[in-house]
Amino acid sequence: MGIDGTAVDALGEERLDWRFKAIPVSAHGMTVAEARRARLPLDDFGTPLLTLDAGALAHNVRVMAEWAAAAGLDLAPHGKTTMAPALWRAQLDAGAWGITIANLPQLRVARAFGVRRVVLANTFLDPAGLAWLAAELELNPGFEFLCWVDSVRGVELMDEALRLSRGQRQVDVCVELGGPNGRTGVRDDGDARRVADAVRRAPTLRLAGIAGYEGALARDASDEGRRTVHAYLRRLANLHGGLDYEVAEPVVSAGGSSFFDQVAEVLGGLAGRVVLRSGAYIVHDDGFYRGISPFARGTGGAGSRLRSAMHAWARVASRPEPALAILDAGRRDLPFDAGLPEPQFVRGRGAGPVEGARITALNDQHAYMVDGSAEVGDVVRLGLSHPCTALDKWTLIPVLDDAGAERPAVVDYVRTWF
């Protein structure tokens, strides 16, 4: 197993109380395991509320694991999406090669739960953090770690900090390739080779591969966007073939949740290990990823469509105007950076699908819903966009047996660490 199952199981002994805004007073004092067995009805939970759907989570994990295996790719899902060790375990149990994280705090969460293989998809220059990493590698021979570097100066800083730590294990690094108007990563292939040369000269580091992120270069799946992604991945593939690695099986890694079909098309079959880092797929959404996912675009394989596993529940607190309802959930509870929530269903006297309603704005604690028929006191189920900025607002998330059922029951609770 790629994670400490005992540590994950121990989360079931945490007591429920006021610290978790999703939890009803009737469950205070219960352990998570006791509340799980009680199968509390959704109606017992107040609003605002974020929930996950058990069936959708299981479906998404299975679909992506099967797709990656069929494509010949290793999957190291980006754990920053959920920061939930219980969900990481589900992904690892389904065959994931490792877990990807983005920074030192996330790395410490991963190690606290015994994640055996961690990819830090970023530069790692913090001296204190590197000293901690060196000690962690020394104390845990089975722990495998990989991170990025995109400058000679970065190599020098890593090497200096690791020399001071006096660790004996080399740290595996990938040269990160970027692109115009992208994020991190060297822009020039010649610079990439110079960084690789610097890594090979550093006694504390080992050149283990090349990596990048195509999602920062194209925000839509238009023909132009896909051409940009294809050209970048071709550069990554060509550079991969021209570097002199220090490991027997070098890594070439790319892939978010938007263009993993192209990652398979361009990088699949390259020598070494091709590692896909998609993360949002496990939760998916009713917004950005619903539109851009290769499965939604018909390029991920027949019958493989992902399902949104997250929903918000908000109560109509006021109808101050005939066509306006004010809901009791806002920016502190819901994601809004990649699209506003969409009303889907009403629970209450006007129970049924929402017809023509839309959210037009969010305040800190309120949402503006227009053209809906929901009455004061009714609860509206909302579809959400972008799981990475949804789950971070909730430390404990109830998991429903079926978010579309007439009377959903809470069958689990997912603990997060953001």
Features:
single chain, 418 residues, alpha/beta, Lyase, Ornithine Decarboxylase, Chain A, domain 1, TIM Barrel, 2 domains, 10-stranded mixed sheet, 11 helices, 29% helix, globular, D-amino_acid_metab_enzyme, Amino acid deaminase, lyase, lyase activity, D-ser_dehydrat-like_sf
Write structural notes for this entry.
The chain is α/β, with parallel strands linked by helices. The chain has two domains: 5-54 and 306-415, D-serine dehydratase-like domain (Lyase, Ornithine Decarboxylase, Chain A, domain 1, Beta Barrel), CATH 2.40.37; 116-279, Alpha-Beta Barrel (TIM Barrel). Helix content is 29%, strand content 22%. The protein has eleven helices and 18 strands. It has helices at 5-9, 32-38, 54-71, 85-93, 104-112, 127-139, 152-165, 189-201, 223-242, 260-267, 288-292; strands at 49-53, 74-75, 99-101, 117-123, 144-149, 171-176, 205-211, 251-254, 273-276, 310-321, 324-327, 342-347, 352-353, 358-362, 367-370, 379-383, 396-400, 410-415. The strands form two sheets. Strands 1, 10, 11, 12, 13, 14, 15, 16, 17 and 18 form a ten-stranded mixed beta sheet that branches. The protein has an eight-stranded parallel beta sheet with strand order 2-9-8-7-6-5-4-3. Strand 4, helix 6 and strand 5 (144-149) form a beta-alpha-beta unit. Helix 9 (223-242) runs parallel beside helix 10 (260-267). The model has no long low-confidence stretch (mean pLDDT 95). This is Amino acid deaminase. One of its GO terms (molecular function) is lyase activity. Residues 309-401 form the D-serine dehydratase-like domain. Belongs to the DSD1 family. InterPro entries: Ala_racemase_N (IPR001608), D-amino_acid_metab_enzyme (IPR051466), D-ser_dehydrat-like_dom (IPR026956), D-ser_dehydrat-like_sf (IPR042208), PLP-binding_barrel (IPR029066).
